[in-house]
Amino acid sequence: MASDSKIKVEVVYALPQKQTLLALEVAVGTTVIEAVRASGILESYPEIDIANSKLGIFGRMAKADEVLQPGERVEIYRPLKADPKEVRRRLAAEGKTMGNTSKKESGED
């Protein structure tokens, strides 16, 4: 493969009300962070703190310096507003669940 070859990748960032998916072509050997920067998404969403944001590829955590493969989707994760373990503890203390109730548990037959 020639050193000037390009691959197609996507960069995605999701907010509760909106998802942005940007398709781009990058050079073979481009890293996760390089694709994020090349996509222009940081200009569209200045609130992204890329130095502290977690990144992933198709739902699995990825390091910023991981080299991308053709067709991969880079995901920029927003920080959690609440620790899921703490939310479950609080709900359990209140006798509630996170909505994963079966018909039997809810009293329905």
CATH topology of the domain at 6-77: Ubiquitin-like (UB roll)
Question: Uncertain runs with pLDDT below 50, 5 residues or more?
Answer: 102-106
Largest sheet, spatial ordering of strands: 2-1-5-3-4
CATH homologous superfamily name of the domain at 6-77? Phosphatidylinositol 3-kinase Catalytic Subunit, Chain A, domain 1
CATH class wording of the domain at 6-77: Alpha Beta
- Give the termini separation: 62 Å
Provide a descriptive summary of the structure in words.
- This protein has 109 residues and is of the alpha+beta class.
- The protein has a domain at 6-77: Phosphatidylinositol 3-kinase Catalytic Subunit, Chain A, domain 1 (Ubiquitin-like (UB roll)).
- It has four helices and five strands; from the N terminus they run ββααβββαα.
- Strands 2-1-5-3-4 form a five-stranded mixed sheet, covered by helices on one side.
- Mean pLDDT is 86; it is low at 102-106.
Helix and strand arrangement:
Blueprint lengths: L5 E9 L4 E9 L4 H8 L1 H4 L9 E4 L2 E3 L10 E5 L6 H10 L9 H4 L3
Parallel strand pairs: 1-5
Antiparallel strand pairs: 1-2, 3-4, 3-5
Quick synopsis:
This protein has helices at residues 32-39, 41-44, 84-93, 103-106; strands at residues 6-14, 19-27, 54-57, 60-62, 73-77. With 109 residues, it is α+β, with helices and mostly antiparallel strands.
